[in-house]
Write a structure and sequence with these properties.
By secondary structure, the protein is α/β, with parallel strands linked by helices. The chain contains 14 helices and six strands. A hairpin with a 7-residue loop joins strand 3 and strand 4 (71-75).
Length: 370
């Protein structure tokens, strides 16, 4: 997966490059800068001194020395002083500058902290939003694994409006579904008597009674069957039984199979008018995985990969369920992760990076963790 949010200490990330929130001058600053220099050893400061001063939004790479990474990319972010769009644009340029240096060094993976959120004063939520936007656009053009490392809850909390909206949708769908699964009735009707049930609930209870009566009749019939009948032994030389009248053979059923996930996906991409590379980048799927899907009509994707393509193609909920079914999957209201995916689709949140941010908020596996 090209993007993932992780709770980890950036100095422990085993990636090609880690990004350092550097001081403009070649000195050891505070926060992440201090931690990186301490873990890398004194040689890192010498390499930094050889570079000299850096401008805001400028990024350079040095060896990582004692760190598990190959490179440290030093970038100077802007300070949050006047709280205006210019400073937000400068922060976006800082994120992009670090990514461009990583691409120039042919890095396949990179780990970021939230830039400019320490002494430089940027609100963590704002830095997060800017980072996600930059990462999304970069991954449309490059193959690279990006990690955003965070610690505290405030670093990855959704905005209050979005969080309340997601939580309300979960309460309405996932919680209600779980209650009905557990008790056989929906939560609203659980504590009311039969006289006060809605027509829908009365019909459901009547159906349940019919199932119970049918099950009881079958059980009585089985118990009264002649258990002393002689056992029929198979004759090894006997011919295979003829197909049952009205039943299709396996070959006939295979001839009538629906189009595979791979064939359906490629048809949808053609119909979208987008380049295949645009779609698999939007889906945060690697070129290698897409090639396998494209070359093998029977390729079985993971559910996360299939969902990524549904988002990239901006399918509605019905279309999403249909494409997922071609891979043997479905979105269920009994799964919290699935409910969040349904919320995003119904609210036209198709950016996979943003969807992963919501899943991360609920401590769920991200689409990108495939």
């Amino acid at each position: 997966m090209p993007f993932e949010i992780v709770r980890n200490d950036i100095v422990k990330m085993e990636v090609d490059a880690i990004v350092n929130t550097a001081n403009p001058k070649p000195v050891v600053g505070t926060g992440v800068d201090t931690a990186i220099h301490k873990a890398a050893g004194p040689e890192l400061l010498k390499a930094r001194e050889a570079i000299g001063e850096l401008k805001v939004c400028e990024a350079v790479a040095t060896p990582a020395f004692d760190l598990p990474a190959k490179y440290v990319i030093h970038v100077v972010g802007p300070a949050w002083v006047d709280e205006n769009p210019v400073e937000e644009e400068m922060l976006a340029r800082s994120y992009r500058a670090a990514l461009d240096v990583a691409a120039k060094q042919k890095c396949k993976s990179i780990a970021f902290p939230l830039l400019s959120t320490g002494n430089y004063g940027f609100p963590q939520k704002l830095s997060m939003r800017i980072a996600l936007d930059v990462f999304s656009k970069f991954l449309m053009e490059h193959e690279m694994q990006i990690y955003l490392t965070v610690f505290g809850e405030e670093a990855f909390k959704l905005s209050n409006t979005l969080f309340r909206s997601v939580q309300s949708y979960i309460d309405e769908n996932y919680v209600a579904s779980k209650f009905e699964e557990e008790y056989g009735v929906d939560e609203a009707a659980y504590h009311v008597g039969s006289a006060n049930l809605s027509p829908r609930m009365k019909a459901r209870r009547e159906t349940q009674r019919e199932y119970a009566a049918e099950y009881l009749a079958e059980a009585v019939e089985e118990d009264s069957a002649d258990l002393g009948a002689p056992e029929i032994l198979a004759d090894a030389t006997a011919e295979a039984p003829a197909p049952l009248v009205g039943k299709e053979s396996l070959a006939d059923m295979m001839d009538k199979m629906d189009a595979s996930f791979s064939d359906t996906l490629m048809a949808l991409i053609d119909a979208s008018g987008e380049k295949p590379s645009t779609i698999y980048h939007k889906a945060c799927v690697s070129k290698q995985v897409f090639s396998k899907i494209n070359s093998n009509s029977n390729y079985q994707p993971s559910k996360a990969t299939a969902i990524g393509f549904c988002l990239a193609l901006e399918l509605d909920l019905e279309e999403t369920q249909e494409l997922l079914a071609r891979a043997g999957f479905t979105l269920s209201k009994s799964s919290l992760a699935d409910v969040i995916i349904m919320y995003c689709i119904e609210n036209k949140i198709y950016n996979v990076v943003m969807v992963d941010n919501i899943l991360f908020e609920y401590d769920l596996s991200q689409i990108g963790s495939r």
